[in-house]
Each structure stands twice: as C-alpha cells, then as structure tokens.
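A favour, since you know our structure tokens better than I do. What I am after is a single protein written out in full by you. Could you add the entry underneath, on a fresh line?


***
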Amino acid sequence: MLINIPYQSCFVRRSYIIPNIYTDDLSVVPAWWFAVENIINRPLLCMVQLQSGALYAKLPLSALVHRVQFDRMGHTEQERLSNLQYWDMQSHGMTCTTLSFLQHKQVEAQTRTAEKVSGRYITTLSNDSADANRINVGYSDFPDVKQYHLLQLDNGNYGAYPNNYLRVWNADFVDRDAVTDRLRRNTIQMWAEDGH
C-alpha cells in the first residue's frame, strides 16, 4: 500500500538509483520524498521525485539522507538499514498520522547497536488491517502491531523507530537526567461494553 507522508526535501544516494555504482559511493542527488510503501516482511519503502522529474519508488530508508554529509551508521548496507529501522513491515495496510503533540519535537532514539541518536519528529506510520473482506478503518485489530515514528536525525539520516526505543524532549515537562525505567509491555485487553 502506498501512502502520503509530510513531504521532505532530501537526497538519494546515487548507489541506489544509478547502475554500476558501488555501494561505497556516498554521493547523492537532490529529491523530494513524499510517500512510503509497505510490503509485509520487507523494510519501509520510500517514493521520491528526482531533480530530473522522474519518480522513483521502493527505496529503502537507508537510501535517503537529508544532508550531503551523513553518518554511515554501519559497516554494511544491511547493518545501516537495521540501525535506521528496527522492524520490517507487519501488514499490507498502513496509515500515516502526524501527532500534533510530537510535531517538531526533539527525540532521542536508540539504534539496534545501542547507540543514542537524536533528531526531530516528522510523522507516525502504523500498520493496519488490510483484509479485503473487512472495512478498512485505518487501525489495526492486532494489539502487538508496531508504530514507526519517522525522524529526521541530526546525523543526516532518516530513521523509523518504535515507541520503546524513543525519548521525546518536552522542555517544559521532561527531566533529561531522569533514569528511564524499563516499562512493562501493555498487554491488557479490556472492553467498555459489559458482556463482551
């Protein structure tokens, strides 16, 4: 499923779009990132418009950067992608919601290698039920589905991180020196209607 996101001026790494260029080539071309696509058990895929006017789809998040100089975040492209996105997509359906409370907030994320990276919140992607036999209301019926919070990282990359690997900085509320306790996973299922 292809969905709109808040569009971003970005760069695409040439090694992802030009034939016969080595993955070690860190050169980039300007682009506009405006949509994402999800295919179950694959990483988040991005759609961009290149400066030539061409539309290019199915780029992994690791192909996009927002600065010409960026941190590699890994020795291989697979390690780089794993540090930018924890989970593959969990359904064929997806929604994009920009949470106004989080909009433009500074966020700290923990990568798969336990490195702390900081950045700015862009939007939230949620897997939803894409069952053709049901009305799609844009929300998942499954309690364990992850959200992917898209971030513009200070190191020049974009990341997609779940709730449990983020800390959001609200200057008037959050104590940055507070120890983050390990929180238990919320698995409680309740119903408002009596006699469910």
Notes: The chain has a mean pLDDT of 87. The chain has one domain: 2-169. The CA atoms of residues 105 and 182 lie 22 Å apart. The chain is about 5% helix and 40% strand.
